[in-house]
Amino acid sequence: MAEALQDATVKLSLDGVTSGYGAIDVLRGVSLDIREGEIFALMGKNGMGKTTLLKTILGAIRASAGRIRYEGAEITGAEPRALIAAGIGYAPQDQPLFQDLSIRDNLRLALPGDAHLPSALERVYGHFPFLADRLAQKAGTLSGGEQKMLIIARALMTEPRLLLIDEISEGLQPTVIARIAEALREERRSRGTTILLVEQNLDFALGIADRWAVLKLGTIDDAGPAGADAHSRILRHLQI
Amino acid sequence: MTLILDILTTAAILFVIATGLLTIFGVLKIINFAHGAWLTIGAYCAVAVGQLGWSPWLAFPVAFVVGAVLGGLTERFIVRPLYARPLDAILATWGLGIVVGQLITLGFGRDVQFTAPLLPGTADILGTSYSIYRLFALGAAIVIGLGFSWLMEGTRLGLSARAVIMNEALAHVLGLDTRRIRWVTFMIGCGLAGLAGVLLTPLTSVDPNMGLAWLVGSFMLVMVAGQSFAALALACLLLGGAQVLVSTFLSPILGGITVAVLAAIILRISPKGFSRV
Amino acid sequence: MSDTTLDSAGPARPGPLWRLGALAIAAAAMMILAPLFLDRFTVNVLTRSMIFAILAVTVDLLWGFTGILTFGQAAFFGAGAYATAMVLTHMGSGPGLMALGLLLSILVPVALAAAVGWLTFYPGSSDFYATVISLVVPIVVTQLIYSGGTWTGSSSGLVGYFGLDLSLGGFFRLAGLCLVAVVFAALVFVRSDAGRVLTAIRNNETRCAYLGINTQAVKIALTTVLAGVTGIAGFLYANASGVVAPENTGFVFGTQLVVWTALGGRGTIIGPALGAVAIDYLSAQLSGQLPFLWQLVVGLMFVVMIIFMPNGLAALVTGWRRVRKGPAAAAPALVPIARRARGPASDAPLLQIERLEKAYGSHKVLEDITLTVRPGELVSLVGPNGAGKTTLMRCMTDGQAASGGTVRVNGESITGLVPNRIVARGIGRKFQVASVFESLTVAECLRMARAAHERPSFTRRRDTLALPQPAIEILRLTGLDRQLGAEVSLLSHGQKQSLELAMVVALEPALILLDEPTAGLTKAERTTIGTVLQTLTSELGLAAILVEHDLDFVRDISSRIVVLHQGRLVLDGTVEEVVNDDIVKRIYSGGDHG
Predict the structure, then answer these.
(1) Is B102 part of any domain?
(2) pTM to 2 decimals?
(3) What is the CATH code for A3-239?
(4) Is the ipTM of this complex over 0.85?
(5) B176 vs A102, A153, B41, C100, C515, CA distance in Å?
(6) Interchain CB contact of C589 with A (< 8 Å)
(7) Which residues of A touch C433 (CB under 8 A)?
């Protein structure tokens, strides 16, 4: 009974998840609960398993142990296609765009068919109006910041209920980071979207997150709410 | 004038034959060595259509459908387990080619077959009389080329296929059904090979091993072209042209190896071939 | 299983070779006696089958062991056969001309193969390209024969010349003895230390190059020598059959050889030889009654085999043997070797990088990098993702990687040099993902690292393994010294990392480059690696450059830290200086934008 109650407020839960590449375990028994409607920042230095964690949730990498539950149902081992259909959105970090395809085609590929394309496009123009005027332009010709906004826009095309975002702030100007932060806040305010943010940028992450955790060598090293001491606690983990 | 027409029509025929192979290589990163066998299947579809007394034109849709259906089965049972072992995929499809050749032999005998000419006679082009059928082949190549670019550029399936070609990992995490895209692509590639087989029938004799002669040439063209259809057209024009010139002015036998030798040299100098075109 | 392990680790090292020799003598005796018991037809067919089996063995060495899928052996075979037949047809017969025929049947394919090998195997060439060329060569040779007029007999081939004056049984014995000799030589070779290089190349060619082995030269040499063997088979064929035809040179025949090799079991030598004999013999037997059905069955078997049993029928047998013998092969004894004499220990820089730049198109990954490393230093390279750390490592070991600036090793520029040449100048590189040879044993991996220093034997497996003391030290610390006979694929991830480090140290480099050596390791394993690195640098005077994400590890062991950010070197200082620097704090908290 108690468990069922808890499940109602937990959007995504990881229970002892171990995964990696081939024989190498990058994640070692990670347990984590993301609550309905919160923005959760997962921090950590390079190579600590943050991207692997997102890819494992999305089913792009198979977990070798542990269980993943989403909206109360077990999704361990499910394919990305099924999870996206179930309302998960993903903004990847490495090679995140089809550079030689137009902005329109990049956005179009997020949807399983073209039926809802116009309305979905209208929706993401609301966040990033510049996209509307440059639909035919190739994604590779956009500036770094514009490309990041396109990645977020694409993840929002399917109106996801859970958004996984991988180091979106990397290499960006503060003004662009602010725009992306605003878009994410707005998305949550209007639709109640739950957001799992993988980040190294402390200021950005703590600026919008409700809670945080630090991943170190494939395990959760520290976690807490976004309060007064969060900044200094996380910085200790990120620094040399 | 004849020379120019020869170059154009030879390039056109090469293009039609190699398109199916390139389609499959682009999306699946697999060389289908049964491609020659599918050309043969297409040609025998024309033979069968003739034996049934149907219109010879019906051979085109029949060959496409037969080629595609058999291709679908091949992808499911032979190619799919071998995506991680591309060299083994070459071998397995080669073995499949042997099987298909023998099955055709069992069904039709090993003798050379003949089909009714689709378009006999010659036409007058700027004072030169030239085979109507070869001109038709040129037209067919242009139609297939345009049809194919419409499929790739203008349809949802084409967009998905291009996405898989460019970045399969990304396509996968965006929820594209990469397995189905591969399957459909393999079917289309095989269907095109069947189509090309029909197109060949009036130009060459039909026998169970006829596809073999075309396999290596189209394989080399695809290697040079990389993953681009424009590059394939260019490669067909240049290498096919060279083949016609060598055959005409030196010796037809040396002409037969021109495409392969030139392709090998091009790849040695620039391993990416013409793919940046 | 323990008793059998003891047995195989016993002192009788020459045992297997003895047994092999005895088997070869028995097989040879059988070959001599067999014609007495077989009918004419069988003798005739088997003679041909055994010649083809020689070809299958060469295909197996190239494809099964070295990983070069080739359809081209038919071309070398045909060239040898035609060389013989042309001498005998156009110049007449006689002992002298027969000798000339034999000589040419070897030299022509060897020359052809040397040219093809040079064309095929160049730095950066792909396996695919080798396969492509192996298709082109037989087509070219066939077409040349077609266009040779009366010289080559064109499409009807050459027939009616006088070959060796032997009876049917005589040819059978000759072919049989040659096959036994080739199989025996091949088996001895692939079991020798030198033969294991082929498997190493198939497993991991990059690692071979970074152990200073010139893999392209090995492949060219192998192709050339095997073309000679193939040519001898061609000589036999031209004599035994009395006819040579263009089909003997074509790529269809070449693919048939691959089919036989696959069905027999690639990578086993005996499997392909038996496969070739069995299938060719059965083909001849059955082609009378069920000609097409038989081909169909062979084709089907081949497809099924490739998909479900890529190692062929022989895998069933060897798989069973492996279970019986247990996984641990006999391990050689470790012997320390004296430290290579270097010049007097000086403080001259080992590595000087000046204004290094690397760009992809207009996108600069590295810009204006200047860095000097001296003996005894342990330099850590840190920075966020995409800072260019791995690219910088690559520029230090591949002379063709950088797009501007210079890298000097011991004062000499490495611009344009391929990795194996740079390794020979004293740089060892450990990759991020453990780069070892999965199907070799631990001892064999280490021997590969010494291959550039002492030429491995072509006939024997040495029962000692001579390694520099520091490499032995690493093996002891990590327990690998007790697992020298274990196959690498059975090791844990951490053990593979340690093995790779030991291999790199066995090169006796002056400078070691390590890309995330602790990724995926446990705490204890990290500590071990850290200790080893500190010993190597502070006590033995090596220099090391380390890319590392684990900053605690970096802080513990480094003598210097270099910080890269967005392709630029932003800081170069002692651990103290870097840890307390504000820029670094900002980079790592995400606020800085260069």
Answers:
(1) yes
(2) 0.84
(3) 3.40.50.300
(4) yes
(5) 17, 17, 32, 65, 34
(6) yes
(7) 24
Compute the distance between CA of residue C482 and CA of residue C475 in angstroms, rounded to an integer.
8
Dump pLDDT digits (tens) for A62-94: 999 999 999 989 999 899 999 999 999 999 988
Range of the domain at B191: 2-210
Residue B228 lies in a domain: no
* CB within 8 Å: B216 and C251: yes
The CA-CA-CA angle for residues C270, C272, C277, to 5°, reads 95
How far is it, in rounded angstroms, from Cα C512 to Cα C471?
Answer: 13
Flag whether B171 is in a domain: yes
Please list, in sequence order, all residues whose beta carbon lies within 8 angstroms of the beta carbon of residue B165, skipping any fewer than 6 positions away.
B26, B27, B227
Chain A residues touching C386 at Cβ < 8 A? 170-171
Is residue B44 in some structural domain?
Answer: yes
Question: How close does chain A come to C63, measured CA to CA in Å?
Answer: 26
Taking CB atoms and an 8 Å cutoff, what residues of chain A touch B172? Answer: 60, 80
C33 interfacial to chain B (CB closer than 8 Å): no
Flag if A23 and C590 touch (Cβ within 8 Å).
Answer: no
Structural domains in chain B (count): 1
Rounded distance between C-alpha atoms, residue B74 and residue B190, angstroms: 10
CA distance readout (Å), C374 to C345, C409, C414, C464, C575: 11, 11, 17, 34, 17
What pLDDT does C589 receive? 60
Count of residues for chain C?
A: 594
What is the per-residue pLDDT for C10?
36
- List beta partners, residue A20: A25
CA Rg value for chain C: 28
CA C111, CA C197: separation in Å to the nearest integer? Answer: 24
φ/ψ bin of C265: left (φ > 0), alpha (ψ from -120 to 50), beta (otherwise): left
Give pLDDT < 70 ranges for chain C: 1-16, 291, 312-330, 339-346, 385-386, 520, 585, 588-594
Token match 């001849």: residue?
C284
Taking contacts as CB-CB distances below 8 angstroms, the residues of chain C near A25 are 493, 520
| A23 three-state secondary structure | coil
Q: For chain C, say whether B96 makes contact (Cβ under 8 Å).
A: yes
